[in-house]
Amino acid sequence: MKHKLVDIPEYWHTTLLSVGVLCLLSFAIFFESWSSIVTIWYRSSTFTHGFLIIPISLWLIWTRKEYYLQLQPKISWLALVAVILSGFAWLLAKLISVQVIEQFATVGLFLSGLWLLLGSHVIKQLLFPLGFLFFMVPIGEELIPPLMEFTATFTVGLIRLTGMSVFREGLHFSLVSGNWSVVEACSGISYLIASVTLGLVYAYLTYTSLWKRAIFIVLSMLVPILANGVRAYLIVMIGHFSSMTLAVGVDHLIYGGVFFGLVMMILFYIGSFWRDSEDSSAPIAAENTHTFNVSHYSLSIAGFVLIISYSVWPLTSSWLSNQPKNTPIPAFVKSSFDDWQETTEPNWQWEASLPGVVDETKAFFKKEGRILGLYRVSFGEETQQTGELINSQNLFIAKKDLRWKIIKRSVVALKNKQHTNFKAEQAILSRDFKDLIILRWYRIGTHDTSNKYLAKLYQLFKRLTADASPEYLIMVAIDSPPHKHEISNTLLLDFINSGLNN
Fold first, then answer.
1. Of 159, 177, 349, 389, which sees the most CB atoms within 10 A?
2. Which residues contact 336 (CB under 8 A, 6 or more apart)?
């Protein structure tokens, strides 16, 4: 006699079929959003763990299938509020190309649909396995700069505690044995994401107490950050005491991976000593003495509502996207720069990383022996595939250019032509006894800002109101003798405040 892998109660049959249809519906309507998630998993080693999220979620459900199958699904129209809110968030994110919010909203739409079909009580019991699906969304790149800064500070601090002399300049530091740089691969973001993901699952399976789970999750965040600092320090020490023959290439990533794996094993091993007994887990018992079958009619109505609720957002996005596009970058008003003499492009051999630029203007001026460059770039329609005005890939230095290095970053207060104060990013670049001081900010319509979140809000307002005014990135650079930036900085600010904003 053949035995079934699992005995599914009759009152689950139609609901499970509806869940399958929901999966196909979500994938078909939001194919681009789901595809963008998988593409990032595939191309970035930082987010490769995304391929494991769905299998882990399904496994967590499967391990307690006997309990979940005794729960009785019921249509929950309250979930329609979550569907609408998630859809609206998806629309806003799509209009201004904020991919991470678009992806979160896509997952939120799917889970809200499950909530509607399964009911509040079932969803409550499945809260962690289903909520864990949000970890499919590739997020964390915003943490790379502060993690790099922490790693550099932590490493240099330990080196000095060791009693060794070290010279630091930004994310670069030098010992008598050689030079080191903290790059993106040294930030530890991969370790942090992996640790938090595994830590969540471990805490869910090991503890039932909320405070134990919270403590372990916090530790899974803090430990990899500190461990990465120690890892960087050990790699520098290995390189230093081996006369820069060991841990100076790919091998230092291998050493770091082994060290991190060891740290995580120790963390999980120590955490096992406070494991809760399984007696406190939810009892496996039927909810009621009678069963309640969700009617085909109710599921049909729910399915129709979901189709409408899902489809309205891509259709609205398509309609708004076909509204008038941004106008070109306006021409320079050269009379504004009378105190500056136009000159030819200098041989700075510097280029910013701005992928996807479709329109740009350049001008160069000279005053008191200093050369100043004015750059304005536009990204056209802005898509994830081409380029965006506000994107983490827009950098002060081209990625493959190892000659220039950033020695200082700060924020500078400026005033635009409406006499409104705003702030610009400032970066000081150094190379071969020559420095560049660069200011960068966004101009969206009549608004100036370097705050990318505020800039996205300005863009969103423009999209919703069909405003076609120009939006572009402004960069102003001026050369300077090394570590003597006062005169150049004064001239730079004078140029911006007296001419550029008029």
1. 389
2. 498, 499, 500, 502
The enclosing domain of 384 has a CATH number of: 3.40.1000
Cα 118 to Cα 91: distance, rounded to the nearest angstrom: 25
171 and 148 part of one domain? yes
Q: What angle do CA 100, 353, 463 make, to 5 degrees?
A: 45
DSSP state of 498: I
| End-to-end C-alpha distance for the chain, whole angstroms | 86
* Biggest CA-to-CA distance, the chain: 95
Nearest C-alpha neighbor of 492 from the set 418, 430, 436: 436
Domain total of the chain: 3
Q: DSSP string of 429-459?
A: EEETTEEEEEEEEEEETTEEES-HHHHHHHH
Asked if 429 and 455 sit in the same domain, the reply is yes
Query: What average pLDDT does the segment 492-502 reach?
Result: 70
Tokens of 251: 């091998």
pTM to 2 decimal places:
0.79
Residue with tokens 């500078």: 412
Expressed as residue numbers, the domain containing 221 is 142-274
Decide if 94 contacts 102 (C-beta within 8 A). Answer: yes
Q: Which amino acid is at 134?
A: F
- pLDDT for 433-491, tens place per residue? 788 999 999 999 888 999 998 999 998 888 888 888 888 999 999 988 887 888 888 88
CA distance 380 to 470: 9
- 369-420: pLDDT as tens digits: 888 999 999 987 776 666 788 888 888 888 787 788 888 888 888 876 655 6
Interatomic CA distance for residues 103 and 41, integer angstroms: 13
Examine the domain organization and report whether 361 and 296 are in the same domain: no
DSSP count for the chain of H helices, then E strands: 15, 11
